[in-house]
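Long-time lurker, first post.

We've been arguing in lab meeting about whether zinc ion would sit comfortably in this protein at all. Half the group thinks yes, half thinks no, and nobody has a model to point at. So I'm putting the question to the forum: if I give you the sequence and the SMILES, can you give me back a predicted structure of the complex? Inputs are below. Any interpretation is welcome too.
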Amino acid sequence: MKYTPAIRQMSPGRRIDFCTLAGVENIRSEQGTWPHVRGTTILTSGAPDEGPHIVGRWKQQLTELHLSGTGQLAYEFANYRNDEQAILRFTKKYGPLERWGKPEPGKEFRFPASEWQAHQKQFKQVWESIEAGKLSAQIGNRLIIKNGHLRCETRKLLGLLLADLFSCPRERLKKCCRPDCLTPYFIAHHLGQRFCCDVCAAWAQRKLKQQWWAEHGDEWRKAKSKRRTRLSKGRSKRTSRGEK
Ligand SMILES: [Zn+2]
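Top reply:
Settle the argument with this. Predicted structure of the protein with zinc ion, as tokens:
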């Protein structure tokens, strides 16, 4: 007997809600040398971390961060600036990328800015290696039913970002062909799209034109001046014969 999946006719896609726990406050950066910290635990092994650290606290009332448009959060993270101020802004908005254990309301967390940068760099590399079949990562999640909805709660923000990236159709994850593009990671509307936006596409058009002129400009100008001489010769002949 052949099984006919009726549900396919009824609903075109599965509904699953991806989310992670969020809600942070008092985010700031601190300079100096700090011991290795994992979440709220100070590690005694390894050299201390240099450079700015981002420090903050989990709110008493934790909230939830949900994925909305497909790839939207992944897009934002991949294109985010990576200086200290930007990392502060990102953390205020979304919280730390990593965490160890459940976020405890009111507890402080701390991570070196360099760690955030390393995570982002790796995320961009994953985006670029569209052959993501190679990648295997432990996202760490629990699949639960809440208020009648199926949902996947990732343990950390980084897991949610990866879930967002990998639930996008692979062939649409692209990098803009303009070398100095400031937000090069994008999700293509159509498969032939090579540039992230109209501005970059217009830049490419201009560049093509410039190239054409550099290669064919002299030829074109010569041909044009020849045409002109021929025309003006023709005209002067006609005038000498009394034609208009
Ligand atoms: Zn671009």
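For your lab meeting: The helical segments are 6-10, 72-79, 84-94, 113-128, 157-166, 198-240. The chain has two domains: 14-187, 197-244. Whichever side wins, do check it experimentally.
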